[in-house]
Amino acid sequence: MPNFKAALAVLSLALFAACASAQGGPPATYQPGPMPGDSPMPVIDFQLHVSAAPTAASAHAEEKPVPPPPIPMALALEAAQAAIDTCTADGFHVGVAVIDQNGNLIVGMNADGAAASRAYTAVRKAITAATFKDKNSALKDKFLADPAMRAKITPAMSVFPGAVPIMVGDKVLGAIGASGGTGFEEEKCASAGVAKIQPKLK
C-alpha cells in the first residue's frame, strides 16, 4: 500500500508538470490598463522591486495646460446648488449638471434621494441646450421643422426638456441640466441655477 501511495504522488506531480508545460506555465498576472488622466504607474518586476515613481515636477511637466472654463467651478457649484434647492423645495429629488460650451462637465451633483443616474442624464440634456443655444423645451418644434438640425443630434444628447443654456449676450458659456422631476420642474430648477450666477458672468 505505501508503494502504491508513493507511485500515485509521483504520477500526480508528473501530470501537473505536463499540464503546466502544455499551457505555457502558470497564468500571467492581470495588469489593468491605464485610465484617462492616470499618472504613470510604477513598474513592478518579478522580485517585487518597485521602480522609483515619477516626481511631481516631471509628472506636471508632461501635462498640457488646460485653459480655465468660461464658468468658474465656484459659480458652477452655486448654480447647481440653486437648482437642487429649488427642486427640493418643490418635492423633487434631482441630479444636476453644469457643463462648459464644449460639453465638458464642470459640476455634477445628485440631491439626497435622487437616483444615481440622474446627474448623467442631466449632462446629456445640458449638452443639447449648449449645442443648440436654447432651452430643451423649445427645441421640439425646431427639430420637427428642420431635418438638418435633427441631423446634428448625437448619442451624447438627450432632447427631453430639463436644460437651459448659460449665455452672455449671444455667446454660449455652457448649460445646466436637471433630471428627476417633470420637464417643467427640471427646466424651472435649471433656470434658477442660471439666474443665481448670471450677474457674475462676463
Q: What is the gist of this entry?
A:
The protein has seven helices and four strands, in the order αααββαααββα. The protein has 202 residues and is α+β, with helices and mostly antiparallel strands. α3 (73-89) crosses α7 (183-197).
**Structural class by secondary-structure content:** alpha+beta
**Spatial ordering of strands, largest sheet:** 2-1-4-3
Query: What's the alpha carbon Rg, rounded to whole Å?
Result: 28 Å
In whole angstroms, the N-to-C terminal distance is: 92 Å
* CATH class descriptor name of the domain at 73-200: Alpha Beta
Characterization of the model:
The protein has a domain at 73-200: 2-Layer Sandwich (Beta-Lactamase), CATH 3.30.450.150. The longest helix is centred in the N-terminal third of the chain and has 21 residues, at 2-22. It has a four-stranded antiparallel sheet. The chain starts with a helix and ends in a 5-residue tail after the last helix. Helices cover 42% and strands 13% of the residues. It has 202 residues and is an alpha+beta fold.
